[in-house]
Every structure is written in structure tokens, then in C-alpha cells.
Design goal:
about 210 residues, mainly beta, four-stranded antiparallel beta sheet, 16 strands, about 10% helix, about 40% strand, globular
């Protein structure tokens, strides 16, 4: 009788623990509107950090625009000093840095604040920076004729692909640092074809014709 009673008690406890509600889910709030003095500029690029913790965008400056950074868990965004007029920028794979083109110089800036660090030069100021998982950055040079690779810490750079008869842009990293996607167009660039570059083999392959119109 005692054994049966003990078994019944244990069964009741097990059933109660299964039916007991778990801890409440954490509350996350999002705002869909920016304050007027922090609003993104119209028809300008923006990007999310890989983990979704930050949004970087072009917002108001004393003259023109500059980069702004908005944490996911905060209502206010912060302007990034020294980024006036920047249009070409991207996050590092770990989300701790923003790489951007200042004139023709490639720089990186910590998202937590601090001074910008120079990485390389001769970078285009048009949507052409890809920060890879292997700690290198691939970007397009002014004139859009070549792709260059450099370490995230700076140093020597090397041309990984060039095309004297076409314009290259919209460089996007592939996982594992294996390569990048980019667009290639000729003439007036009414439309562009999408290519993939294998950085290990230094080979390109057409992915889709007319991918960008």
C-alpha cells in the first residue's frame, strides 16, 4: 500500500510539473517611426548588422547627410562623427565594426564609439564593400574596373578580379570567406548581370543575366 501510494504521489507530481506554465517570455518592443531629427534620408542605403542588433543608415547632418547607428533595444539613434556624405558602408561579420568609404579611403569604426581606423585606399564610394568571415574585405576601386582584397587590419592589398571593359559593383560576401557576389555591366548599365567570384580559384561564373535593372 505504501509503495502504491508513493507511486501515485510521484505520478501526480510529474503531471503537475508538466502542466505548470513556464517562465514568461521576455518583452521586446519596436518602434516603426524615427524622430524627425533622426529620420533616414530618402532613397539612401541602409544596412543591418548580421545579428540584427544595429541599423546603420544615412541621416541628417549639419550639411547634407552622415551615418547614424540605431541599436535594436533603444529608441534613439546616434550620429557617427567623421562620416559626412558616406554612402558606401557595411558591418563586420561579428557586428562590432562598420567599414565605410571616406572619399577614396577605406576606414572602420567601432559601433561602441571611438576613432575611425584607416584600412586601405582607392575604394569606390558606391555600394561596393564586402567584409568576409575570414577577416578580409573585398571592395571595388574607383572607376569600377577591379575588385581588391585587403585584410581587415590593413596592409598590402591585391587585385582579385579586373575587367577593363565593364563596371563592377554591389559586392556581397558569401559564407566562410569563400567568395563574393557582384554585378557586372557594360555601357550605360541599363541592366547588370550577377556573377560569383571564387576567391580560392580566382574564377568567376555567371549566376543570372539581367539581375539588376
Amino acid at each position: 500500500v505504501a509503495a502504491a501510494l508513493g507511486g501515485a504521489i510521484l505520478a501526480a507530481l510529474a503531471l503537475w510539473s508538466l502542466r505548470r506554465p513556464g517562465p514568461p517570455a521576455p518583452v521586446t518592443r519596436f518602434t516603426l517611426a524615427f524622430k524627425r531629427d533622426q529620420a533616414p534620408a530618402e532613397e539612401t542605403p541602409f544596412t543591418l548588422s548580421p545579428d540584427g542588433a544595429y541599423l546603420a543608415y544615412m541621416g541628417p547632418a549639419a550639411r547634407g547627410t552622415q551615418l547614424w547607428l540605431k541599436p535594436r533595444d533603444q529608441r534613439d539613434a546616434t550620429p557617427l562623427a567623421g562620416t559626412d556624405g558616406v554612402r558606401n558602408f557595411t558591418f563586420s561579420p561579428d557586428g562590432r565594426w562598420i567599414a565605410f568609404a571616406a572619399g577614396i579611403e577605406l576606414r572602420k569604426l567601432p559601433v561602441t564609439g571611438g576613432a575611425a581606423v584607416p584600412i586601405s585606399d582607392s575604394v569606390s564610394n558606391f555600394q561596393s564593400i564586402a567584409w568576409l568571415d575570414d577577416g578580409t574585405i573585398v571592395y571595388v576601386v574607383p572607376g569600377f574596373r577591379a575588385l581588391v582584397q585587403v585584410s581587415e587590419g590593413g596592409g598590402a592589398r591585391r587585385v582579385v578580379w579586373s575587367d577593363s571593359a565593364a563596371s563592377l559593383a554591389h559586392v556581397t560576401p558569401l559564407p566562410g570567406g569563400r567568395g563574393v557576389l557582384f554585378t557586372r555591366c557594360r555601357g550605360g548599365c541599363a541592366e547588370a548581370d550577377l556573377y560569383v567570384l571564387d576567391l580560392q580559384k580566382r574564377e568567376t561564373k555567371l549566376v543570372q543575366s539581367g539581375a539588376l535593372k
